[in-house]
Amino acid sequence: MSDLTPAESRDLRCIAGMMIPASMEFDVPGADDPTIFADITATLGRDTAHVREALGDLVALAGGAFADLVPARREAVAASFRERGGAAATLFRVILQCYYRDDRVVRSLGLEPRAPFPKGHTLEQGDWSLLDPVRKRPKMWRDPG
Amino acid sequence: MAVSNEIVDVLIIGSGASGAAVAWSLAETRMKILCLEQGDWMKQSEFPSNGRDWEARRYGDFDISPNRRGRDTDYPINDDNSPMKIANFNAVGGGTVMYTAHFPRMHPSDFRVRSLDGVADDWPIDYATLEPFFAENDRMTGVSGLAGDPAYPPKQPPMPPLPLGKTGARYAKAMNKLGWHWWPSDTAIATTEYDGRAPCINLGHCTPGCAQGAKASTDITYWPHAIRAGVELRPRCRVREITTNEHGMASGAIYYDADGIERFQPAEVVIVACNGIGTPRLLLNSASARFPNGLANSSGLVGKNLMLHPWPQVGGYADERVDGDHAPQLSLWSKEFYETDPARDFVRGYTLQFARGGGVVSEAVDSESRGVLPWGADHHRVYRQLVHRRLRIGVACEDLPEEHNRVTLDPALKDSHGIPAPKIDYAISENTRRMMEHGIARAEEILIAAGATNLFTSRTALNSPGHLLGTARMGNDPERSVVNAWGRCHDVKNLFIVDGSIWVTSGGVNPTSTIQALALYIADSMKRRLATLFD
For residue A82, which residues of chain B lie inside 8 Å, CB to CB? Predict the structure, then answer.
């Protein structure tokens, strides 16, 4: 359940789609995909205030609804918005953290869409003979006497 | 008026790295021991790596900053006047719940910085004094590592080291090419079954709690043993102040219990284990007519000499996928630049820590914040050149004590119980800045030798590393220290401090191993002096 107004939600979805558009080449949805955007708005939680603040800044920069701007103007406003930091950084982070946990996106990266636990991962032991030259070094620690 | 409890022999405030160790060690005395902890017991089943939102939770209820995390068990910290922000965790186990489990010891030279290098002060104890307690702590904690490191006096970690993996092999080859020291880290992560703990299965997100239970946090290492031995641990109890009697001795503590009821806990001995921020906060909040400048503060040094360990991070990207977040982050170190070299423009030195990469979300968020991840159609191509290719080296710089770096009480900020919150004033010294730049340059050389490109540096990592040291330093001179050589306050003879606040200098290492060895040493000192403890 989103705490955003319809206008805020529309602007957020618009900037998410500009940030990460769908790609046929990589066979991935954009961050404005309905499932991903639903995840973004449903999990804003403690970030809601910052996201609303950022969206307010976006409207101020746009001089009105960001989503209603013509594409060229949207690009220019988005570029300015991106440089602001602060609350905008929170907005970008909530988009990214939902986008990069979507099953389709995770699979496209060659990874399994799952939590780390309980399966974990395998790590190769590696070649410990690499330590041989270090083993031959004399002691390095200073004896304080 | 506070409700008064039954008196205990020993009251320990704080259940983290040092509180747990001292509780376990003292348990064999059969004294009545109680520990008050403001946080809760944590459940492995609730740690982030159980769920698909594991990375997002590091920006939420498992954020390393108490200010952003904002659990009801946390207290706020005003760190506006510090380039380094404060990290901690408030729970049974304290900061050991929220740490990487990198477990280096201090080096012998770290205890003799005045004698060897002419700066700061020597410790009143030395490495040899702590050595048996380091070993005992390694056994209790369950440390993995490899004997034979030429950077340390001989030691024998009880478990084999974490695997090298692809990332480690890259670092190893690079270091051999440069002819520089490297070694598998001592790590408080089980690599075999150990004391009821399962071995590491490479969940990768060790810092915000280990769902497997392979990472050693004191809630699963010391505390089960201490509780079985008769120690009582009471969670969700926030101490407001330590009280004193007409003899100038500690008489107990006033705290708020889980229901918010104000209680008085009388005690014969009080041990403070609240970390380098929480301990001075508590002592300063315990000011009274007898101790108007704060408890145990006749030296004026309570809260001063705060050391936070500046910790630049230098990263780059390999030309292939390496381990990413599919393993514990830290498993190798280099001590090549640890000891003072007169040819350099700074004294003391640093450890280089070799890290694996991050998760898919953290890579995206970090790359976005650095402006290297484009928006629009090119986003996907560029992101795929970054994810799971990251190499990162941390430069663990020794931070020397300076009195202007300090913890005081904030005049306005309070916690949820109305207790004044700590305020931090901290600046990085010129010596440390030169050390940081030296370390950054060496880390860049290593990354280039490891085949990394697109290098980047973060000079003061946000909320990292959470090492809180030096604010109630130990020493033999009551005018220049807060506690004596075995942790007893000079001013209050039944009040002890066992956490990182008693450190005289900080070394260039993660502190948990040494904090716990010190706590065990202090407990042992107390046990050996039981008949004359207050003399």
Answer: 375
